[in-house]
Amino acid sequence: MEKILVIGAAGQLGSELTRSLADQFGAEQVIATDLNESAKAKFDFCRFQVLDVMDKDGLRNLVKNEKVTQIYHLAAVLSAVGEKKPLFAWELNMESLLHVLELAKEFKLNKVYWPSSIAVFGPNTPKINTPQYCVKEPNTVYGISKQAGERWCEYYFQKFNVDVRSLRYPGLIGYKSLPGGGTTDYAVDIYHKALAGEKFDCFLREDSSLPMMYMPDAIKATLDLMNAPSESVKIRSSYNLAAMNFTPKESYESILKYIPDFKIEYNPDFRQAIADSWPDSIDDTCARKDWGWKHDYDLDAMTKDILENLPNFKF
Ligand code: AKB
């Protein structure tokens, strides 16, 4: 019987992934954790505990007492906030991963999941169809921490046989939760503004193309990777993962088909430099070949789904 611990469960990815994990493993087998007690309200479908991932002993006691067998470690400081608080981002992103990998080694956990990001790439990386293996010189603290984290994951797999699996997510877009502190967040915010009948002030240039993915695809990819037989998971740093690429202008035009009087203005800020350092598109052949990854949503299918469902969604 698996016992799943989700760290940072109330975030953008965690809010949706935790529900899918509870569906797969059962409500009693999944423990959602978050820094804030107020997050408890989101998790009426599984167990919940307050946890600060930097509290090494608290985390160890939880894993030991609950006989945890798998950890999904989703807590992180994202790219934009990371640039405002570089040392805090480095400390949180790296130390928390090392705590989790050490616990996986000590308690011989069955599996660990840790998300990486397109932020591992940098200005010297090939921008179009960025390959799995290429120059990576990230110039954000978030990207540096994800790149170093990938090396640690592979290290723990090779040296200590820790079954750790990871995906380099593109920008994730969902309507059930709000992102916090990323560069790709505009692609979520734009739908909220369109439905509220407000003008959207975009912090990226209209032609700034980035790899993106709709949340149901991201959840599917994560569960497919975690459910794949160990031998199929040939990459233990992190897999490139792709679905679609678009610019703010293309995102706006896709919404205009449904909301013709929607208005946008472009006022690039410091996040433009971060976006400029990331790929336009990603080659995810390895994920497709090794464990059968296939995405379902393109931009227009995602827009239709969000605009149909967001007005009825209760936060
Ligand atoms: C961010 O924008 O920081 C994240 C990411 C691409 O990892 N969404």
Keywords:
about 325 residues; Rossmann fold; UDP-galactose 4-epimerase, domain 1; 11 helices; binds 2-amino-3-ketobutyric acid
Q: What does the model show?
A:
Belongs to the NAD(P)-dependent epimerase/dehydratase family. It holds the Pfam family Epimerase. This is Nucleoside-diphosphate-sugar epimerase. It comes from Algoriphagus aquimarinus. GO terms for molecular function: L-threonine 3-dehydrogenase activity. The protein is an alpha/beta fold and 315 residues long. The chain folds into two domains: 4-170 and 229-240, Rossmann fold (3-Layer(aba) Sandwich); 171-212 and 243-312, UDP-galactose 4-epimerase, domain 1, CATH 3.90.25. Helix content is 41%, strand content 15%. The protein is built from eleven helices and 14 strands. It has helices spanning 12-25, 56-65, 79-84, 86-106, 141-160, 186-196, 215-227, 248-256, 271-276, 285-291, 299-309, and strands spanning 4-7, 30-34, 47-50, 70-73, 111-113, 116-117, 164-165, 167-169, 171-173, 200-202, 210-214, 239-240, 244-246, 264-266. Strands 3-2-1-4-5-7 form a six-stranded parallel β-sheet, with helices on both faces. Strands 6-8-12 form a three-stranded parallel β-sheet. Helix 1 (12-25) crosses helix 7 and helix 6 (186-196) runs parallel beside helix 8. The longest helix is centred in the N-terminal third of the chain and has 21 residues, at 86-106. It is globular. 48% of the residues are buried. The mean pLDDT is 97. Residues 78-79, 117-119, 142, 169, 171, 182-184 line the site of 2-amino-3-ketobutyric acid (AKB).
